[in-house]
From TrEMBL:
<keyword id="KW-0560">Oxidoreductase</keyword>
<dbReference type="InterPro" id="IPR016162">
    <property type="entry name" value="Ald_DH_N"/>
</dbReference>
<dbReference type="InterPro" id="IPR016163">
    <property type="entry name" value="Ald_DH_C"/>
</dbReference>
<protein>
    <submittedName>
        <fullName>NADP-dependent succinic semialdehyde dehydrogenase</fullName>
    </submittedName>
</protein>
<keyword id="KW-0521">NADP</keyword>
<dbReference type="InterPro" id="IPR044148">
    <property type="entry name" value="ALDH_GabD1-like"/>
</dbReference>
<dbReference type="GO" id="GO:0004030">
    <property type="term" value="F:aldehyde dehydrogenase [NAD(P)+] activity"/>
</dbReference>
<comment type="similarity">
    <text>Belongs to the aldehyde dehydrogenase family.</text>
</comment>
<dbReference type="InterPro" id="IPR016160">
    <property type="entry name" value="Ald_DH_CS_CYS"/>
</dbReference>
<feature type="domain" description="Aldehyde dehydrogenase">
    <location>
        <begin position="3"/>
        <end position="457"/>
    </location>
</feature>
<dbReference type="GO" id="GO:0004777">
    <property type="term" value="F:succinate-semialdehyde dehydrogenase (NAD+) activity"/>
</dbReference>
<dbReference type="InterPro" id="IPR016161">
    <property type="entry name" value="Ald_DH/histidinol_DH"/>
</dbReference>
<dbReference type="Pfam" id="PF00171">
    <property type="entry name" value="Aldedh"/>
</dbReference>
<dbReference type="InterPro" id="IPR015590">
    <property type="entry name" value="Aldehyde_DH_dom"/>
</dbReference>
<dbReference type="InterPro" id="IPR047110">
    <property type="entry name" value="GABD/Sad-like"/>
</dbReference>
């Protein structure tokens, strides 16, 4: 894929970039290594001051960078501005809490006395340059949720962003530089995916984080394993949205629409499989389908647009193949399901019922505004359907029965269980999945410690 901004609303190429050559890439790796030697010794207070400044600048830039994101990957501009605000919030959260999250830990004297220590502690120290391989769907947020904790921990960042969001990638480097961070603390590498393996093998790069496809995650994990380097992987999901008889069905259906189509349906944590108890199935499906039909599809730069185009032409083709396969297998199309005429990579909000296990969409992630609905005759069947997926990122359950809540929390195979609400990431809550959704955690205290050397300090008598 060329490194270029291609407007998905009309398919026109806005700007192209040359990939960095070997000489420039080597210069940047040298700079990252050299910068880390000094940046690692800066105080938490100084890092916080710089990160807060970056948050202030991002708030000022939100209208413009929002338009850039929308031009590059098609999300409605209102959602783009909200993404920028969320990033600024996360920066401030880590700036305010990193010192506490990384404070020395002191085991109780009685617990370590028989080790021969007069005292002992655990200290969190930075690892070094961390490579971040990031996707296009949340081009600011995916990066900031790595960068904010990593930089506050004293690491330096090397960003390999998706090739279709180069302007956003370069903006991020410029943002941190304008905030006052030393040049080598955060660098954007304009390179193709083929260059990632060599960079990860470089001894100067100490760890990697990737959000993206399962094949990309396998490739990074394989190389990192060979080189014995720490990785955090978030590889997408096919999250269940379970509705039980005691739920507020009208509210559940309303939230379900947003949960499915946020970011044009191109979200790892978007609810994708809607599992509804037979007692409320008809009522839920009627409201849900009506809500999907009512969404406004159009120019993503317009303030009243609910759904813009998909980010890439190939992405739309992949989504169409999943829908067509389900249709051939006997699934019912309750709304949508047909590519509209005209320019741009648009696809309508679509609801599929009668989906079977043999259909591709049952086991593959549908990255776009397509929902699949399932009927469950009881809690056991709902759990069975929910777990019948290779992914396990998050989940949503709607019930007022506390015993049912306990059962779902116990048995759902996912990194999160959201009760009577939709999945959302938040700086204070750990984010990540199980199964083929990856491993490790971002955000919260867990996220900032992922790229730390957890050091035992032992003092003799």
């Amino acid at each position: 894929m060329p490194i270029a901004t291609v407007n998905p609303a009309n398919g026109e190429t806005v700007k192209t970039y040359e990939a960095m050559g070997e000489e420039e890439l080597e210069r940047r790796l040298q700079l990252a290594e050299a910068t880390f030697r000094t940046y690692r010794t800066t105080s938490s207070e100084e890092r916080a001051r710089l990160l807060n400044r970056a948050a202030d600048l991002l708030d000022e830039d939100a209208p413009e960078i929002g338009r850039v994101m929308t031009t590059e990957m098609g999300k409605p501009v209102r959602q783009a501005r909200a993404e920028a605000a969320k990033c600024a919030k996360a920066m401030r959260w880590y700036a305010g809490r990193a010192a506490e999250l990384l404070a020395d830990e002191h085991p109780a004297e009685a617990d370590v006395r028989d080790s021969g220590a007069s005292r002992a502690l655990v200290r969190y120290r930075p690892l070094g340059p961390v490579l971040a391989v990031m996707p296009w769907n949340f081009p600011l947020w995916q990066v900031v949720r790595f960068a904010a904790p990593a930089l506050m921990a004293g690491n330096v960042g090397l960003l390999k962003h998706a090739s279709n969001v180069p302007q956003t990638a370069l903006y991020l480097e410029d943002l941190f530089h304008r905030a006052g961070f030393t040049e080598g603390v955060f660098q954007t590498l304009l390179i193709g995916s083929g260059a990632v393996d060599e960079i990860l093998r470089d001894e100067r790069v100490k760890a990697a984080t990737l959000t993206g496809s399962e094949p990309a995650g396998r490739a990074v994990a394989s190389t990192a394993g060979e080189m014995v380097k720490k990785t955090v992987l978030e590889l997408g999901g096919s999250d269940p949205f379970v509705v039980m008889p005691s739920a507020d069905v009208e509210r559940a259906a309303e939230v379900a629409v947003t949960a499915r189509v946020q970011n044009n349906g191109q979200s790892c944590i978007a609810a994708k499989r809607f599992i509804v108890h037979s007692d409320v199935y008809d009522a839920f499906i009627e409201r849900f389908t009506e809500g999907m039909k009512a969404l406004r599809v159009g120019d993503p730069q317009a303030e009243d647009t609910d759904i813009g185009p998909l980010a890439t032409e190939q992405g739309r083709a992949d989504l169409e193949e999943l829908v067509d396969d389900a249709r051939r297998g006997g699934a019912s199309v309750l709304c949508g399901g047909e590519r509209p005429d005209g320019p741009g990579w648009y696809y309508p909000p679509t609801v599929l019922a009668g989906v079977g296990r043999e259909m591709r969409i049952h086991r593959e992630e549908a990255f776009g505004p397509v929902a699949t609905v399932y009927r469950a005759d009881g809690l056991d069947e709902a759990v069975l359907i929910a777990n019948d997926s290779p992914f396990g990122l998050s989940s949503n359950v709607w019930t007022r029965d506390e015993a049912e809540v306990d059962r779902f929390v116990r048995d759902l195979e996912a990194g999160g269980v959201f009760v009577n609400g939709m999945t959302a990431s938040h700086p204070a809550l750990p984010f990540g999945g199980v199964k083929r959704s990856g491993y490790g955690r971002e955000l919260s205290g867990h996220g900032i410690r992922e790229f730390c050397n957890i050091t035992t300090v032992w003092h003799g008598a």
